[in-house]
Amino acid sequence: MQFDDDARLDTSEVQDVRGSRIPGGRATVGGGVAGLIALLLGLFFGVGPDQLGLSSGGDQPAPAASSLDEVRQSCHSGRDANTRDDCRMLAVVNSVQDYWDAEFTRRGGSYGRSPTVFFTQRVGTACGTATSAVGPFYCPGDRKVYLDLDFFDELRTTFGASGGPFAQAYVVAHEYGHHVQDLTGTLGRAQDGRAGAGSAAVKVELQADCYAGVWARHATTTPDESTGRPLISNLTDADIRDGLDAAAAVGDDRIQERFQGRVTPDTWTHGSAAQRQQWFETGYRSGDMGRCDTFR
After folding, report:
1. Cα–Cα dist 171/191, whole Å
2. Does residue 159 surpass a pLDDT of 90?
């Protein structure tokens, strides 16, 4: 995945609070293997920490920009995105939101942009206080994506994904798929608390995978405002394979097999490895969000 060196990055779309101390109660989750499995299945590529009771309760303070805001200090152009992980993630956020802004407009709607919050260790959100252990998530309470960049090392070392820049981009695009669902009213279908292979929760997650694929199809053709050229100048078949590999690595069946030694579909919350790959491919091959109706 290559970015246009001359493109200007919009740093306003990322709030960099890495290194900040966030006040508020401590987030907790059940201990032992059972707690770990619940955490992994419930929040990797999911919505806010409130869904598993990780909040300490009460309103949480919004994260404030850190004096160490490296994004604004270091991430200015596509050239920076080609050399730094945090700048790359900013560039992906810019590209994903440029696409959805244009697509909503084409369909006669209005897309409300959502910032991504880069944090370390712990962060306060409108959905509660979360730790890095919950992985990337979207909080519908404040309509923000939350991401600890160290997660990408976990994706490779703990979950066995091959890694690569586009595997990281897939993660971000999936979370913005939840934002699209929030704007269109679909996200609420997953709020009934039910799990299982046929549950609404799984269908919501698979649709977010499909939306990530739709963005990927258009990533090299969506123009950037600063240059009139696409921010992402090159996306290869190998990049797409990295994205598919990441999608499979966080399939419910793969995670359950790895951490509990057996597969229990009645507890699934995100879908199997094959399903996650299938729906990402559906979005990528069609380039049409209308083909992402996982509820039909």
Report:
1. 21
2. no
Backbone Cα Rg of the chain:
18
Burial degree of 238 (CB within 10 A; 0-12, 13-18, 19+): exposed
Q: What is the per-residue pLDDT for 227?
A: 92
Rounded to an integer, what distance in angstroms lies between the CA atom of residue 104 and that of residue 71?
A: 28
Helices (H), the chain: 32-43, 70-74, 78-81, 85-106, 151-157, 165-184, 200-218, 237-249, 252-260, 273-286
Smallest CA-to-CA distance from 166 within 250, 92, 273, 77 is with 92
d(CA 70, CA 15): 10
Instruction: Using alpha carbons, select from 154, 125, 152 the residue that is nearest to residue 140.
Output: 125
Q: Which two tokens stand for residue 205?
A: 């997650």
* Beta bridge partner(s), residue 16: 118
Q: Please report, rounded to a whole number, the percentage of residues in the chain having pLDDT higher than 90.
A: 63
The pTM of this model reads: 0.86
Q: Whole-angstrom Cα distance, residue 205 to residue 186?
A: 11
Q: What integer is the mean pLDDT of 237-266?
A: 91
Pair of tokens at residue 42: 């419930």
